[in-house]
């Protein structure tokens, strides 16, 4: 550190209240926005993430995502976990869900188990209360969350919208415990009770459930759809650091497009006119409302002249819903991907991801390196110039910043793990097998994907780069690859201290995948 800079830093310590600013070496730091959508599928956009434009890309209208993609890079092999809390807590901690033991969504009430009961398999003792920065809490995974590190380094940190890191009555329900200085509408709830201001976003007298959205009283009965209210609040919140000339981190988490599938009145008519059924028209309107939210924030950054120094990372937390509450036939909502939310097939885990970083990312580019949601932790810290010193957890994520700077860089193969030893929903055993739901673990490794059905200890093998729909199971044709991948999957799960469910009849945990390979 030069004498001048050192002097300035010591000088600033007397006058700047926040600590740790001297950890950052450069004078100017990027603002960072993660725009995390809830339950948005890979195909729920007019931006094609597949090799060609598909019918669903023509159904949905997301002009602002198109704009973002034209200014940034599309990651076409980006992944998250099959449901909300595992992905969200992995993002906050940098740990894979096999390690956090947060392998299912957390119910809003403390101690409540979202796992469905099962006749063959006993309930798993997973971290059903979620993620906690406090190491003394029980039934919780412990981690130093990255927003806390950003705040300590001088970032103004803002949470807007869905949090869903754990249960009410635990520290996980309060975004302030994760290092956020401002929290608007984030709590233990995993969906909005209502998107409508006329229903006070759920806060109706004697009708409010744990999913009633907090903090938005000023919008009640104003005709403001939830997505719009959150967007206006986000813009108001970032005005503060902009005025103070501070750098900020915004965790922009729209509740859209999670159920309840309700019409966004600003956009729904067009989809009715296009002949979509009522549910699918409403769903498409939720998507377009979310896209307007993105566009409004992008416009505001430009208006304030800070768009060039603000990184935007667009992501979804799991695949598009397919099993229930949707219109039209099943297993079509994420086509060409198979299945949807809750599944370890691609429809449940492959995500639309875009990164814009002016001056660093080459506009309108595509990156094929596989990335996963725990990579956000080290990536965001690297973007901010903050070292993950003194974190209490073992991190599984790897920074993707080098791919942003060098488009030709190719990642060495590494195991991306989707471990779901829980029962998400009650469906028949044949549907479990068909849709890849309940008691599965899976691994993407290079071009390959190995799926292990824990209930009956059966493998499936797909060459995912050639067979994105996962229709051509190569398990019998390529036993050598199955063996190699099963060994790697088992080893990685054990390294991460992963849990396996217990068979009621034998009282023993199910074998890890490497243990049944001969
Ligand atoms: Ca979700």
Determine the CATH topology of the largest domain.
Answer: Alkaline Phosphatase, subunit A
What is the share of helical residues? 25-40%
The percent range for strand residues is: 5-15%
CATH superfamily of the largest domain: Alkaline Phosphatase, subunit A
Q: According to CATH, what is the class of the largest domain?
A: Alpha Beta
Largest sheet, strands/sense/barrel = 9 strands, mixed
- Alpha-beta content class: alpha/beta
Q: What is the 3D form?
A: globular
Hetero groups bound?
A: calcium ion
Number of domains: 2
Question: How would you characterize this protein structure?
Answer:
- The structure is a single chain.
- By secondary structure, this protein is an alpha/beta fold.
- It has two domains: 29-405, Alkaline Phosphatase, subunit A (3-Layer(aba) Sandwich), CATH 3.40.720; 416-515, Arylsulfatase, C-terminal domain.
- 27% of the residues lie in helices and 14% in strands.
- It has 14 helices and 15 strands.
- The chain has helices spanning 3-15, 55-59, 63-71, 84-93, 97-100, 146-152, 226-244, 268-273, 278-303, 346-349, 376-384, 401-405, 429-435, 479-495, and strands at 31-37, 73-79, 131-132, 141-142, 156-161, 182-184, 248-253, 310-316, 350-356, 365-367, 371-372, 416-420, 440-445, 448-453, 458-463.
- The strands form three sheets. Strands 1, 2, 5, 6, 7, 8, 9, 10 and 11 form a nine-stranded mixed beta sheet that branches.
- β13 (440-445) and β14 (448-453) form a beta hairpin.
- α3 (63-71) packs across α9 (278-303) and α7 runs parallel beside α9 (278-303).
- The longest helix is centred in the middle third of the chain and has 26 residues, at 278-303.
- It is globular and about 65 Å long.
- It starts with a helix and ends in a 23-residue tail after the last helix.
- The model is unreliable at 1-27 (pLDDT under 50).
- Residues 38-39, 84, 258, 317-318 line the site of calcium ion (CA).
